[in-house]
Amino acid sequence: PRQSFVMVKGAARLLSVEEPPPAEPPPAEPLGQAPGQQEQHLHLMMQLLRPQDAIRLAVRLESVRPCRVRYLLVVRSEEAGAEAETALLGVDFAHEGANLCTLGMVLPLWSDTQVFLDGDG
Question: What are phi and psi of 11, to 5 degrees?
């Protein structure tokens, strides 16, 4: 499946086939982040998924450890003929330039799921 993203200030959103890319120029990279690092992180995170899964939203989170990089992903199954499945995934990188990520959390979302995130936003 085609994977096109728009990235804005640490968040990435999947673009659908009929959705045109935004006309505004890309934002400046956050401090301490190498150019292209988010694209590299997205590529590595997509390698964790099954071929029929697609990242619908990826958000970089603040981490308690300053060197660790964390993302929260909303992933949806794009399997034809199957009931759509959605899950929240927590993905960790040991440091900014890491070329390996680990899956730290998997939370399936059901129609009656309520998610409460603790923190200041």
Answer: -120, 145
| CA pair distance 121, 40, nearest whole angstrom | 25
| Distance (Å, whole) CA 36 – CA 59 | 16
pLDDT tens-digit readout, 89-101:
999 998 888 899 9
Quote the pTM value.
0.65
Q: Which long-range contacts (CB under 8 A, 24 or more apart) does 56-64 make?
A: 56/13, 56/14, 56/86, 57/11, 57/12, 57/13, 57/14, 58/5, 58/11, 58/12, 59/10, 59/11, 59/12, 60/10, 60/11, 62/119
What span, in angstroms and rounded, lies between the C-alpha atoms of 107 and 10? 21
